Amino acid sequence: MKKYSLKFISTIAIVIFSLFFAIPSLVNNNFLPGWWSKNKLKLGLDLQGGSQLLLQVETNEAINEKLQNQLEDIRTSSSEKGIRIEDIKLIDNKINIKISKEDFQKFEKIIKDNSQLEYKVVDEYIEINFSEKYLREFQNSIILQSLEIIRKRVDEVGTNEPVIQIQGKQRVL
Fold first, then answer.
1. Is 172 exposed, middle or buried (0-12, 13-18, 19+ CB in 10 A)?
2. pLDDT 10s digit of each residue in the chain, 173 long?
3. Which residues are CB-contacts of 155 (< 8 A; sequence separation ≥ 6)?
4. Residue 19 and which of 5, 78, 110, 153 are 20 to 30 A apart at CA?
5. What is the pTM for the complete model shown?
6. H/E run at residue 16
7. How many CA atoms lie within 13 A of 70 on its CB side?
8. Is the dihedral of CA 146, 147, 151, 154 positive or negative?
9. Which residue spans within the chain are E strands per DSSP?
10. Which pLDDT belongs to residue 97?
11. Are 96 and 126 in contact (CB under 8 A)?
């Protein structure tokens, strides 16, 4: 009679044990007992076929909306300080304001009080825009906010182990 080694017996036991738990996932569950078929492996979305979406965050629209709000704030602050605005409009993601030379010093103080804005004088208009540092921070916060919203909505559905990540500067995968 042949003696079997401990390694051989252990290997056979592991294979039988693995097959015991793999069979419910490999065959139709109609003829298996209920206690055995509930041990079926749950496949993730990637193994079931999965899906991949690449979404782009419209940061320019959000910045334009933020500038529109800033325009209203400037209009309100100017009227409170007694500054008469001749013309105010939003063009190419910049606020263009025309005021008299006498009111320029008062108006300049309003702009300097707001650290997220910077200005330059072009012809008779004052061009106001957000600073580069503020724009970068705002764009990053919009993308992170979008990532969290997508993550919450995907988690509500109950998807197993979704991979949600930022790709590039304005996209969420």
1. buried
2. 567 789 999 999 999 988 887 777 777 666 667 666 666 666 666 666 667 888 898 888 888 899 898 888 888 888 888 888 888 888 888 888 888 888 888 888 888 877 788 888 887 888 888 889 998 999 999 999 998 998 888 887 777 677 888 888 888 88
3. 162
4. 5
5. 0.62
6. helix 6-26
7. 24
8. positive
9. 55-56, 85-91, 94-99, 117-122, 125-130, 166-167, 171-172
10. 86
11. yes
Q: Which of 45, 24, 21, 48 is nearest to 34 (CA)?
A: 24
User: What single letter denotes the amino acid at residue 67?
Assistant: L
Residue 112 CA, distance from chain mean position: 31
| Residue 156 amino acid letter | E
Structure tokens at 171: 């996209």
Q: What is the pLDDT of residue 7?
A: 92
Contacts of 39 (CB under 8 A, 6+ apart): 21, 24
Longest dimension (CA), the chain: 112
Rg (CA), the chain: 32
